[in-house]
Design brief:
By secondary structure, the protein is an alpha/beta fold. 27% of the residues lie in helices and 21% in strands. It is globular and about 75 Å long.
């Protein structure tokens, strides 16, 4: 996939692109680069390397709950919206796994999370990318040329090695959002680590769980605990009066279309933020209606039979926790009547969402003063000082500038093509041969 790395006076290899992280977003970029290099002259190839702190490819393995399905349709995979003829489509994955006919007979657009994770691992194992697993990036430092311009970056890894990059693509992912009153522990943990932590719990002393959150992940964990711990109570704590259904209607779903990125990025900031707020029900603190109905039916049947195990602590908040040797006491306050109940639980699961990983720890003085950044180009290139000619591209953390798809899988294929197009065209402007044709599989509307 990569041409031989150029050497500079520091004796470090030079790459056109260095990707920080190798999750689905940078995997989609690696595929786009591979397809570009296979269809261009040798002098126009893009060299790339990706550094990933995990020991192998994985996508939220702690939330691969049995039966949990994707919330996006399978054509929104790593490549289809950019290049439907790609060998990396979900359809081709099914064909190679021998399940294409069976999947079609299944008559669904929404595979299980297990199957989609297997698709991502299949693609990561197939792409000819230079990926260094088990290698975290520690810093990105600008290198100035003889004219005083920063035209390259030194990317230094945790193992002490370094590589020179003409462009850095930040795909460091998300950071768990933890309430201020919570201290992560064996009994108090974020849902991102759910399957790992729940399996490490000692024998249940109280037969009781509390789950904080009103979104899809919270509801899925409530369902899982209720089904897999038949003697335990499950208390779902959320500030709403009840779970709200996700709006996945066709018109509302257009907020995830590639064209919506053009509209939102070009709109006045006030209007862009208004639209994001109006359409929060497509993604934030909402639950699939089928799961809502299933949980309601379980709760209702328990009321009929008289043995309650599922409790919806609506319009409530957790005000304090105290962990002991055999459990964790969770104080839940109702905003309706002001009363506080203390639940002796075996574990508290925080389904409290994520925030974009901060840029400052890696970029240092190159990072914007505001997080998440407000000045990001349509091609996802971070706006930095005029003396920086090298590119810093963001795979995530751009919701306020590009829309809701920033942290979702919906747009990874198209975004990868847009970033690659920008890298190729900008390289051409600084004197290296580059061409972008409308027929290229990675070319986007930006290039055309």
């Amino acid at each position: 996939m990569n041409e031989s790395p150029e050497m500079v006076d520091t004796d470090l290899p030079v790459r056109d692109v260095v990707g920080v992280g190798f999750g689905p977003a940078n995997l989609a970029l690696a595929i786009a680069i591979e397809e570009h290099n296979a269809n261009c002259a040798p002098g126009e190839q893009i060299s790339a390397q990706f550094l990933e702190k995990q020991d192998r490819f994985g996508w939220h393995p702690g939330m691969l709950l049995d039966g949990a399905t994707m919330q996006i349709a399978f054509p929104k995979d790593l490549v289809t919206f950019r290049n439907p003829r790609s060998a990396y489509t979900f359809f081709n994955y099914l064909f190679e796994r021998g399940r294409l006919v069976d999947f079609v007979n299944h008559q669904t657009f929404f595979p299980t999370r297990h199957e989609f994770h297997d698709y991502l691992q299949w693609a990561a194992g197939r792409v000819g990318a230079d990926v260094r697993y088990g290698t975290a990036v520690e810093s990105v430092r600008g290198i100035r040329n003889s004219e005083g311009m920063i035209d390259r970056f030194e990317v230094r890894a945790s193992d002490g090695t370094a590589v020179i990059a003409r462009n850095v693509v930040m795909g460091a992912g998300l950071r768990e959002r933890i309430p201020e009153w919570a201290t992560p522990s064996m009994r108090c943990f974020h849902n991102h680590q759910f399957l790992f932590r729940i399996g490490e719990l000692p024998t249940l002393a109280h037969q009781r769980f509390a789950v904080l959150g009103a979104g899809q992940s919270a509801a899925e964990i409530v369902q899982y605990l209720h089904a897999n711990y038949p003697e335990a109570e499950v208390h779902s704590v959320f500030s709403r009066y009840g779970y709200s259904p996700a709006d996945d209607s066709p018109y509302a779903n257009r907020i995830f279309d590639p064209e919506a990125v053009d509209d939102l990025h070009g709109a006045p900031e006030v209007e862009r933020l208004r639209l994001l707020d109006v359409h929060r029900s497509t993604n934030y603190s909402v639950v699939d209606i089928e799961l809502i109905n299933e949980l309601y039916a379980k709760e209702y049947q328990e009321r009929v039979r008289g043995r309650r195990r599922l409790f919806m602590r609506r319009a409530s908040e957790i005000v304090s926790v105290e962990e002991g040797s055999d459990g964790i006491d969770v104080a839940v306050r109702s905003a309706v009547d002001g009363l506080t109940d203390t639940l002796a639980c075996d574990a508290l699961i925080l389904a409290t969402g994520f925030t974009p990983a901060p840029l400052e720890p890696l970029l240092g003085e190159l990072a914007p003063a505001v997080h998440p950044p407000r000045e990001v180009g349509r091609d996802y290139r971070l706006a930095v000082s005029p003396d920086v000619a090298a590119g810093i591209y963001l795979q995530g953390g751009t919701e306020k500038t590009h829309g809701i798809t920033s942290s979702l899988l919906s747009n990874v294929a198209v975004r990868a093509g847009e970033i690659l197009t920008s890298v190729v065209t900008r390289r051409g402007r600084i004197g290296t041969l580059a061409s972008v044709n409308a027929q290229d599989t990675y070319a986007t509307s930006e290039a055309r």
